[in-house]
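Tutorial handout. Part one gives the primary structure; part two gives the three-dimensional structure as tokens.
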Amino acid sequence: MNAERIVRIVAGFFILLSLSLGVEASPLFVHHYFLFFTAFVGLNLFQSGFTRICPLNSILAKLGVKGSC
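Part two.
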């Protein structure tokens, strides 16, 4: 599995988890402040699309995970 797929999987997991913890209709609801984490992940994905700088991708490179090329 390459780094790009791992980044997408982790981002999707964090978004779904933070939504389930932050939306009052969810049975896992804790507090609505978890929606800020959803926004953080979304903004990070947005900026990495323009700047090609992704913190998780840097961590995965240091761990030896191969890139998409």
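Part three, for discussion. The chain has one domain: 3-62. DSSP finds three helices and no strands in the chain.
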